[in-house]
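Our platform keeps sequence and structure together, in a single record for each protein. Nothing more is needed to write down the fold, since each code stands for a local backbone conformation. An entry from our holdings is shown next, in its original layout:
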Amino acid sequence: MEKELPVRKHPRLKNYDYSSNGAYFITMCVEGRHEMLGQIVGRDAPGAPFVELTEYGKIIRKEIGDTHLHYKNVIIDKFIVMPNHIHMIILIQNENKINENGAPRASRPTSALIPNVIGILKRKTNKKYGFQMWQDSYHDHIIRDREDYRIKWQYIDTNPAKWAEDDYFINESN
């Protein structure tokens, strides 16, 4: 009997223009969820725990910080590098331009802007790492309003403190 292969889900929202102005919550994961980017420290100490980055984590942090060099209309507004994944709030701010007859027109559409940003981050870091670190896909969430934005911002801020309950945490002691 032949085993049926799983059908790959396409996580992007069908027919959505991922170059639209707005805010996007993105999560990228290390292949196999290996904790290669850092470790949580200060869990038992006073104050908030934080992520102590490895050299791999420092590389991705720098590349995230350099995103504006590749895309003038993209801002990484908030991010955190966790031991085996990254969360980011990405803002797209396309400015309308004026065409020949004075009417406003949108910037040249590229419905793959968010995937391009993620792709560049993955390619550049993989090249520096010398191997393929990242899972092929990523999770995205279109932030719909101020409250949604606040929730995602707070999630990023509190992620290190909640590491043991995180969906991406792998308890290797079991």
